[in-house]
Specification:
The chain is mainly α and 209 residues long. 76% of the residues lie in helices and 5% in strands.
Length: 209
């Protein structure tokens, strides 16, 4: 029946909204506790099922075999009575299960984009330090592969002493923050692409109802 086809659509819309809310929490307020995955799944499916409950009251089954004897035996058709109350219900479905969730999702993604852009601008002056750390780690990896004798000079430039250098530690922290920022931006782009593709593909179906 038609309501069975709409449940996955509502679940997907709510899932995108919850994913944007979780990303917003992780980026802007990481100290707050994470959303429960089981709880979110339960809520999305319950809301999706509640939304489609009125469908059976406006749907009737027509047995084509009784109308066309001998030609359509065992064939039926589900029809929807588009009464005034049904039209109001469909408008509510369009607003509260499509427009409103995707609008909130877009607002959350926009705030995340602004925050990541601000962090990128703050980290730009320190990218030279990041490059120095990468080159230093590459040099250490090469020294570990090549055989060398244990001398005073090698002892002074050992990775252990380098790790104890406060400036090197600060540069390594900068490098790790830069990598985390890159990962956050990549995940953000994936979620924005998914939400945009879903909205574009579902918009004609929702508008033609």
């Amino acid at each position: 029946m038609r309501e069975h086809n709409d449940v996955p659509l509502h679940v997907t819309t709510l899932t995108l909204l919850l994913a944007a809310a979780e990303r917003h929490r992780a980026v802007l307020t990481p100290a707050k506790p994470r959303l429960s995955a089981a709880g979110c799944a339960l809520v999305t499916w319950l809301l999706a099922l509640i939304v489609v409950i009125p469908y059976p009251f406006y749907t009737s089954y027509v047995d084509l075999g009784s109308l066309v004897h001998g030609r359509a035996s065992g064939v039926g058709l589900c029809t929807v009575h588009m009464a005034d109350s049904m039209q109001v219900y469909m408008r509510g479905i369009f607003l509260f299960t499509f427009v409103l969730p995707l609008t909130v999702t877009a607002c959350l993604q926009l705030r995340i984009s602004r925050e990541l852009r601000a962090r990128q601008q703050q980290a730009a002056p320190r990218q030279q330090h990041v490059l120095a750390v990468v080159l230093r780690e590459a040099a250490h990896s090469r020294d570990d592969i090549l055989p060398h004798r244990y001398t005073a000079s090698s002892r002074r430039s050992s990775p252990r002493d380098h790790a104890a250098d406060p400036r090197a530690v600060d540069e390594r922290d900068t490098y790790e923050l830069q990598v985390d920022l890159w990962r956050e931006r990549r995940a953000h782009k994936y979620l924005v692409s998914m939400a945009t593709a879903f909205a574009i593909c579902l918009a004609p179906l929702m508008l033609l109802r």
